[in-house]
Amino acid sequence: MKKAAGSIALLHAGQLLTLAGPRGGRLGPAMRELGIIPDGGMLVRNGVIESVGSSEEIARQLPNDIDVVEARGRVVLPGFVDAHAHPVFGGNRVDEFELRAGGASYEEIAARGGGIRSTVRKTRAASEAELLSLARNRAEWFLHCGTTTMEAKSGYGLSLAEELKILRVVRQLNETSPIEFVPTFLGAHAIPEEFRDRPDDYVDCVVEEMLPAVVRQNLAEYCDIFSERGYFDAASTRRVLGAAKAAGLKLRMHADQLTNSRAAALAAELGAVTADHLEQTDTAGIAAMKGAGVQPVLLPASVYSLGSTRYPQARAMIEAGLAVVLATDFNPGSSPTPSIPMVLSLAVTQMKMLPAEAVTAATINGAYSLGRGDRIGSLEPGKRGNFCVFDCEDYREIAYWFALPLVHSVYVNGNREV
Ligand code: NIG
Ligand code: FE
User: Fold this and answer.
1) Overall fold of domain 81-369
2) Which ligand 1 atom is nearest residue 89's CA?
3) Is the Cβ atom of 257 under 6 angstroms away from ligand 1?
4) CATH fold of 8-79+378-416
5) Is ligand 1 within 6 A of the CB of residue 116?
6) How far is the CA of 377 from the centre of ligand 2 (A)?
7) Is the confidence at residue 2, as pLDDT, over 90?
8) How far apart are CA 8 and CA 274, in angstroms?
9) Is any ligand 1 atom within 6 A of the Cβ of residue 119?
């Protein structure tokens, strides 16, 4: 069971990043506006923010029975929202990590039976209880990096029973962890070994068996697919996502990661909420996403971890007026990090996003991409009391001092969790 919601007053944040603003994802120049209150304070009652203002204003209306959190000049901002993550899997791929150092590519390793399929073998071999225990441990890592809401994709089971097993683990995680998990069905992540010679039959299985069961058991809000050469082509993508939409799921899509297969434009055509990765997406793909209101989810940690230098065109996307999101892509193959602060560093240094744009992308824009922009992602009256305190004076330091754990404390629904 989740804890009862807490009540606290926060005082003396050197910078309180409210991210306050109009409803909806932040576009273009609005991505730079963080709504910073110097010497800020906030009142949270029963898990919900009641007021936000200067410390003086908050101190004036302090209820006598409330616990006061002294930020002592530190930076306070909304808990991070990680809108693309694969946290439930067995084992790790440290062997492939070493092989890549020796020159092997992600695609070569996958072609030899490694890659996603190797994690599928380890995930199938793990019991539901073992997977839950592994995932709980990982949830603690996320929390310690300042994440308070995250997506959780299935996709390492690739059979009816195994995909349902993973999604049940996500449900149990959600019931017990301070983090809120948003479940996504990713049965179309790879063609499993047993369907190697008949990939179309696997697409049938995803559409006719898995999807109806996932929906019937109410185990996912979103459906995703790895739309990529050697994985799922445009026709299969249309089939899977078309069926998912008809069944009432919202859509996300792994698009244009390794090759430009015009998947960003396909995401627009299919009415996806997000198109994720986009390392190979060109100007036409960006225009298509703009036309359909698709949010790009950029995952620079996977580019970094694969040793590539081909980052997505974040600047062009911001300038085109897209509500850009940043996320970890946490997974054992291409992005073994739960750290949004590391992602912010990569966004600034490698994609030339401004520190403020990066913070917006990992908070309020992430929240809108997960259908929760009305509840989380900013510190405004009526929203959840989810925030983190960083041990620095200026929010730009969060991305600047990279690979340094600057998280001082993390609150979810007004309770201190870290
Ligand atoms: O987002 N691209 C597909 N899926 C993951 C990688 C999964 C894996 O290698 O296990 C990604 O990068
Ligand atoms: Fe991914």
Assistant:
1) TIM Barrel (3.20.20)
2) 10
3) yes
4) Urease, subunit C; domain 1 (2.30.40)
5) yes
6) 21
7) no
8) 35
9) yes
